[in-house]
Amino acid sequence: MLSYVVIGICVILLLAVIFISAKPISMGIEARREIKENSSLPDNKITEDQNLSDDLDQNKNITDEIIKLNRLREEGVLSSEEFEKAKKKILD
Description:
Blueprint: H1 2-38, H2 43-75, H3 80-91
């Protein structure tokens, strides 16, 4: 009798896990379908998105470098003239 109770509890737990995981699994399948559909976009669209991402990364790096230079100028490590030269070199 005890074994039937244990088996019953296991079956109930298994059904609960299946029920709870059904929605995330279906969401994953849907996401995979969308990726396949989007991968059929023209190559130039993907390239444009990658170029935009690269440009944003490069702008962020330039901004970070100028901020570092400004900090050095404020600390007195660089003179204003050296700061302007370095900034001009970064921006070119």
